[in-house]
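Propose amino acids for all 268 sites.
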């Protein structure tokens, strides 16, 4: 497990439990005590956790929500590329001529248009500058960009006017990203500004897709915007956990995985 992934996993475990111990983290992740102490020390330096006699708690948990490591779209686009491209291809296969689609922000979403015929007639709603830029040169695509205050790390914009625009329009399909997925804490995002955007897009779409690679499973971010069974379809990769596959099958939620990963899944 790469260090950034370890840091996110450890922080998620602490946030979920509010407090834990070095020993518990060592057993949970199968790492040496030295490695866990070093990673926890890094989180403590960042002001995300506090340590005490072998224990770890969320920093300032009584006064504000715990923060998560800052999100960088550029960094995210360089991680799990093979999985994200496979997921994007599955998502693109669901896009048809005449569709009105909402494309969320995020690194996996940004790969979807690579697999969509550039001459396909589409209407695309988006609020992320990188998605907007990817639509350039698509002659038969009508693009609606909601605009607003620009957030540099995620390349997203938000505003009351943009939210109102999304709320008075409808889409046939909404492709939604996530940074954390758990059965108990739901589907989460690092920020707060994009929560109403994601919820509005989902509420106004005929079919909602959750598009996320399996590295997001088990993680918790601060901003909850949906539960896993709020989506009509989940698109992920072969690492998608068995318990989540069973959860979706029991609730009749469609799960799309690369062919080799789909064996044994049968929605009711």
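Proposal:
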């Amino acid at each position: 497990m790469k260090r950034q992934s370890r840091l996110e996993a450890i922080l998620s475990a602490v946030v979920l439990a509010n407090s834990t111990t070095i020993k518990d983290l060592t057993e949970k992740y199968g790492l040496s005590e030295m490695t866990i102490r070093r990673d926890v020390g890094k989180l403590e330096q960042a002001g995300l956790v506090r340590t005490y006699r072998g224990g770890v708690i969320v920093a300032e948990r009584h006064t504000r929500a715990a923060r998560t490591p800052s999100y960088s779209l550029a960094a995210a686009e360089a991680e799990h590329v093979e999985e994200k491209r496979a997921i994007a291809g599955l998502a693109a296969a669901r896009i048809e001529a005449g569709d009105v689609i909402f494309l969320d922000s995020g690194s996996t979403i940004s790969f979807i248009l690579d697999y969509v015929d550039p001459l396909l007639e589409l209407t695309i709603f988006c609020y992320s500058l990188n998605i907007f830029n990817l639509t350039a040169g698509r002659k038969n695509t009508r693009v609606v960009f909601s605009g607003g205050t620009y957030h540099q790390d995620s390349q997203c914009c938000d505003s009351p006017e943009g939210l109102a625009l999304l709320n008075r329009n409808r889409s046939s399909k909404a492709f939604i990203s996530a940074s954390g997925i758990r059965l108990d804490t739901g589907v989460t995002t690092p920020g707060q500004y994009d929560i109403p955007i994601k919820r509005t897009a989902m509420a106004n779409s005929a079919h909602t897709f959750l598009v996320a690679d399996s590295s997001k499973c088990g993680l918790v971010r601060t901003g909850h915007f949906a539960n896993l069974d709020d989506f009509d379809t989940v698109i992920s990769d072969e690492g998608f956990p068995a318990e989540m596959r069973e959860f979706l099958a029991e609730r009749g939620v469609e799960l799309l995985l690369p062919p080799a990963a789909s064996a044994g899944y049968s929605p009711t």
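Confidence is low (pLDDT under 50) at residues 61-78, 262-268. The CA atoms of residues 8 and 69 lie 7 Å apart.
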